[in-house]
Amino acid sequence: MPDTPTGVMLSVQNLSVDYAVKGGTTRAVSDVSFDVPRGGTLAIVGESGCGKSTIAKAIMRLLEPAEGRILLDGTDIAHLSERRLRPLRHSFQMVFQDPYGSLDPHLTARDIVAEPLKKKGMRSAAERATEAARLIDRVGLPSTALERRPNEFSGGQRQRIGIARALASKPELLICDEATSALDVSVQAQVLALLRELQQDEGLTYLVISHNLGVVQEISDSVVVMRRGAVVEQGETADVLTAPTEDYTRRLRRAALDPSTMSGLKPRHLVSSLALGKAS
Ligand SMILES: Nc1ncnc2c1ncn2[C@@H]1O[C@H](COP(=O)(O)OP(=O)(O)OP(=O)(O)O)[C@@H](O)[C@H]1O
């Protein structure tokens, strides 16, 4: 389509998002632009309240932007009606921070993963069960997990179920909103390793929302640093994190290196070495 650069899966152009507040609106995100190449990973990082989740919600079209364009594989979805959006919905999926809150506690893992298959039009219950079993295996869980309910899993295992559910729609773009934030550092590393493996195998494109520079360094090719709803700095992750040009990024980096903040910026090899274990 017209002005999406070739090979770009997601192009966010001059995005602004408002929230309705008493007596008017407040601008939470202002004039944000970035491109995510197909098969690549872009991270959005910044302190609490800087607008990261608002951007994710706008791309998921849980919110309608005030201004700007959101080109998904060339189609501007910023203002599409729900009816016109519906056929595209499967292609962009989200993995949430709180895997417990986002999984229906009454359903088994099989039913949780099978639900989007039904929505997608897979009519046969037997086919859905087979595909759910394949996906549960794909995310590194044993087949005994299929019959269990969310409260019978650890946080890392629940996050794997959330990932399997997202994969069931066969998405092209996965938005991970603080997807590993609630997990211990070693479990976090395992989930990041799984996400990387899935990306290599399935050619997925990732938008990763995180306040944790360690996660950003571990998983992303490029990064957008945000503050108070606006972009402060953006570029290749290695460049931005090793030689930030902005004071704000330098402060984020210092905070991440300070053990008392627990943010955990770690050399890549160290996080990778933690990633060798299996599903926790
Ligand atoms: N429903 C809402 N109504 C009004 N203002 C909101 C609403 N949701 C978020 N905001 C405001 O928009 C700004 C951006 O919030 P957002 O949740 O996107 O930040 P964030 O960077 O994701 O923060 P965190 O890391 O804490 O989740 C904040 O100032 C927040 O207070």
Automatic annotation (TrEMBL):
Keywords: ATP-binding, Nucleotide-binding, Transport. The keyword Nucleotide-binding applies. Residues 12-253 form the ABC transporter domain. The keyword ATP-binding applies. It holds the Pfam family ABC_tran. PANTHER family: D,D-DIPEPTIDE TRANSPORT ATP-BINDING PROTEIN DDPF-RELATED (PTHR43776:SF7), TRANSPORT ATP-BINDING PROTEIN (PTHR43776). Belongs to the ABC transporter superfamily. This is ABC transporter domain-containing protein. It comes from Frondihabitans cladoniiphilus.
